[in-house]
Amino acid sequence: MLKLINVCKSYKNNKKAIDNVSFEINKGEIFGFIGHNGAGKTTTIKAVVGIHDFEDGEILINSKSIKKDPIECKKQLAYIPDNPDLYESLTGIQYLNFIANIFNVDKKDREYRIKYYSKQFEIEKDLGDLISSYSHGMKQKLALISAFIHNPNLLVLDEPFVGLDPKASFTLKEIMKDFCDKGGSIFFSTHVLEVAEKICDKIAIIKEGRVLSYGTTDEVKGDGSLENIFMELIDNE
Ligand SMILES: Nc1ncnc2c1ncn2[C@@H]1O[C@H](COP(=O)(O)OP(=O)(O)OP(=O)(O)O)[C@@H](O)[C@H]1O
């Protein structure tokens, strides 16, 4: 579903933010991307979703190149950044309909998905209110609901658990598992190692733009905990 082959990106200062990053996410897999602050997670994510160009390598979404076929790739995915900018002067429901319009989602499907996900995240009764009146967590929930509106094949989430209360975090984990059980794929970054260890099929650990470890969760953590392996790799490499 998503394949990165030796992807390199530098910013204007010529320092490589990501260096030869390669990994693959298959249909039905949850993939956790972990690394310290400034490791290159957001840069990789922005390259995957077509926001950042990159000098070398290739990124394929469902076998299509994000460089050569960006529209087809973007139709397949939904991306939620770590600090989503929503249109504050719209109500929640107006925003969700706006996103549904962009992706040409028909009335029946959008109504069903809006109802289903807003109920799951318990913001059904707030959808008529202006986004400017929402708390940080409510905005995060609205952004997450918008990601499911067009039933994407690939969900790309940058730090999706930040700002969510424990109940909403639990709900999101359940929704992520359900989404992948139905054949979707998820690529997400996180600093919450317990969550990664619990829900991910595969994990990559990145440091200073290079992938230090990559494989199934069991392969990456071996006999230890993910936290131990992470600390070891980050301190020693
Ligand atoms: N717009 C930019 N211009 C120049 N350098 C940048 C830019 N964005 C990121 N970088 C640099 O690229 C490297 C990777 O940053 P990135 O934001 O990808 O890290 P991250 O792993 O997402 O970090 P965090 O966990 O703090 O969000 C860092 O050295 C950062 O300073």
UniProtKB/TrEMBL annotation:
<dbReference type="InterPro" id="IPR017871">
    <property type="entry name" value="ABC_transporter-like_CS"/>
</dbReference>
<dbReference type="InterPro" id="IPR027417">
    <property type="entry name" value="P-loop_NTPase"/>
</dbReference>
<keyword id="KW-0547">Nucleotide-binding</keyword>
<dbReference type="GO" id="GO:0016887">
    <property type="term" value="F:ATP hydrolysis activity"/>
</dbReference>
<dbReference type="InterPro" id="IPR003593">
    <property type="entry name" value="AAA+_ATPase"/>
</dbReference>
<dbReference type="GO" id="GO:0005524">
    <property type="term" value="F:ATP binding"/>
</dbReference>
<dbReference type="InterPro" id="IPR051782">
    <property type="entry name" value="ABC_Transporter_VariousFunc"/>
</dbReference>
<protein>
    <submittedName>
        <fullName>ABC transporter ATP-binding protein</fullName>
    </submittedName>
</protein>
<dbReference type="InterPro" id="IPR003439">
    <property type="entry name" value="ABC_transporter-like_ATP-bd"/>
</dbReference>
<dbReference type="Pfam" id="PF00005">
    <property type="entry name" value="ABC_tran"/>
</dbReference>
<keyword id="KW-0813">Transport</keyword>
<feature type="domain" description="ABC transporter">
    <location>
        <begin position="2"/>
        <end position="233"/>
    </location>
</feature>
<keyword id="KW-0067">ATP-binding</keyword>
